[in-house]
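Retry 2 of 3 after timeout on previous attempt. Resubmitting structure tokens to design endpoint.
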């Protein structure tokens, strides 16, 4: 199932509730929340307090992408604030198996995230323990960057890796996805498609989400 996951990083932070409602009307399947700590990535965003307020504005699953060091210290806070999905970077989690197990024990879907330069082999031992893998198609830290084309082949290789192990793991992709490349991203096997500036940078998030969704579903209908 292909879903559009608007990233609120590019939204108007003074009107987050309205921005999310517009994306929801446009057919968003989840809301992607980028959490940055100024250590793991060179940017600062939001934490559990804001997430808790967002939880009251939407029934869509809240997909928390933690770009922070020591993610274990904050899992419970994000789960209590209303996260439905929590993903952590394999590069930031020292004891990844413990981390994803804790996420599941907290009642959330657990995701492992790979940076563009991290090879798929880093997933080999953890794949049976996660619900989804988030492949970064930009270097994490900022919205509005260009899609790194080699991510397409990486999606296909991950899809093969998942099916060769007969696992039920969803592939999410994040960074630089727009109307031009979303069909290719889906054709290569991505299922949850994060889009920040392509949704919130155009002035009409509802129409932008709808257009992305149409483009994304096209390859599946032929
Ligand atoms: C980058 C974030 C992305 C970002 C995507 O670190 O993880 O979720 O908001 O934004 P766009 O779609 O503009 O690349
Ligand atoms: Zn993200």
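Retry 2 succeeded. Sequence:
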């Amino acid at each position: 199932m292909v879903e559009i996951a608007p990233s609120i990083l590019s939204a108007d932070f003074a009107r987050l509730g309205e921005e999310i409602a517009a994306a929801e009307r446009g057919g968003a399947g989840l809301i992607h929340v980028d959490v940055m700590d100024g250590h793991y990535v060179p940017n600062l965003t939001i934490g559990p307090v804001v997430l808790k307020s967002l939880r009251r504005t939407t029934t869509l699953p809240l997909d928390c992408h933690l770009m922070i060091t020591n993610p274990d210290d904050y899992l419970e806070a994000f789960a209590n604030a209303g996260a439905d999905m929590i993903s952590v970077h394999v590069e930031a989690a020292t004891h990844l198996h413990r981390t994803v197990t804790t996420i599941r024990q907290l009642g959330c879907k657990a995701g492992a995230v790979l940076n563009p330069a991290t090879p798929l082999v880093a997933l080999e031992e953890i794949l049976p323990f996660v619900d989804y893998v988030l492949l970064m198609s930009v270097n994490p830290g900022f919205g509005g960057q260009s899609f790194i084309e080699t991510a397409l082949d990486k999606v296909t290789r991950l899809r093969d890796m998942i099916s060769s192990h007969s696992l039920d793991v969803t592939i999410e992709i994040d960074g630089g996805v727009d109307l031009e490349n979303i069909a290719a991203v889906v054709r290569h096997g991505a299922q949850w498609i994060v889009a920040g500036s392509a949704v919130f940078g155009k002035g009409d998030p509802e129409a932008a989400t709808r257009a992305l969704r149409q483009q994304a579903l096209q390859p599946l209908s032929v």
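Attempt log closed. The longest strand covers residues 31-36.
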